[in-house]
Amino acid sequence: MPLCHNLIEALAAGAIPILQYADYLPQPLTDGVNCFAFHDANSLQEVIQKVLAMDRAQIQTMRRKVHEYYQEYLAPGRFSKLLFSGKSANRTLLLNAYRVPRT
User: Fold this and answer.
1) Do 83 and 91 meet the contact criterion of CB atoms below 8 Å apart?
2) Rounded distance, CA 30 to CA 67, Å?
3) How far apart (Å, rounded) are the C-alpha atoms in residues 28 and 6?
4) Which of 16, 52, 82, 98 sits at 20 to 30 Å (Cα–Cα) from 89?
5) pLDDT tens track of the chain, all 103 residues?
6) What residues have CB less than 8 Å from 50, skipping those under 6 apart?
7) How many angstroms separate the CA atoms of 97 and 80, rounded?
8) Alpha-carbon torsion 57, 61, 64, 44, what sign?
9) Number of Cβ within a 10 Å radius of residue 29
């Protein structure tokens, strides 16, 4: 599952995510701003070293950016506001129709 609720919960709590799929969100996270992104085992090791070398001020700045991202795109009510904020009067919302029981 490339995107799961635990990422959203972590962002809501202000945790700085270390993840391999920063661009899977509708509005991608930005490496070094509101997440740490890696692509393979070597880059994961590099990211871990970078995180361990951060000072308190850098961590607080990133946590603030994580919180801003969450409030802008993921907080309760934001989806509907973003969905209906465009100029187009027509909307198509695709849901997991295969999960809806059919009679």
Assistant:
1) yes
2) 13
3) 16
4) 98
5) 456 788 989 999 999 999 998 888 878 999 999 999 999 999 999 999 999 999 999 999 999 999 999 999 888 888 778 777 777 777 776 666 666 665 6
6) 36
7) 19
8) negative
9) 23
For residue 62, which amino acid is it? M
Record the tokens describing residue 83, joined without a space.
């969905």
**Which amino acid belongs to residue 14?**
G
Tokens 């391999």, residue located: 20
The residue count for the chain = 103
Instruction: Outline where 1-90 has alpha helix (H).
Output: 5-12, 41-52, 56-69, 78-83
